[in-house]
Design brief:
Layout lengths: L12 E8 L2 H24 L9 H19 L8 E8 L5 E2 L1
Antiparallel strand pairs: 1-2, 2-3
Length: 98
């Protein structure tokens, strides 16, 4: 079946199917937040008084765990469904339509 663009009546029309998923972005946000907490914890333990036996490594690991816990409590654990969008593209006038 040949589809014509209703405005310019061109026959050079293609159907485009776009599938999007946000799982990669959610994973990157989660890792970024844990890394942020780890760097904050490491820098805070550097500025503690010298009589406390804490190294920046311990502060970074503890803060990363707190960041992971923070993400697991406040982020939605349900997987996000992928969204499929379908539309047509006219090569003659470079317009999209449904």
């Amino acid at each position: 079946m040949q589809i014509n663009y209703p405005y310019c009546h061109s026959e050079h029309v293609h159907r485009i199917i776009h599938n999007s998923s946000s799982s990669h972005q959610d994973t990157m946000n989660s890792l970024g937040s844990s890394a942020t907490f780890a760097s904050i914890g490491a820098s805070l333990t550097k500025h503690l008084p010298t009589h406390l036996p804490l190294s920046p490594w311990m502060g970074g690991i503890a803060s990363a765990l707190i960041g992971r816990l923070f993400n697991s409590v406040f982020n939605d654990p349900s997987p996000r469904p992928s969204i499929t969008m379908s539309y047509f593209y006219c090569e003659s006038c470079h317009q999209n339509f449904q």
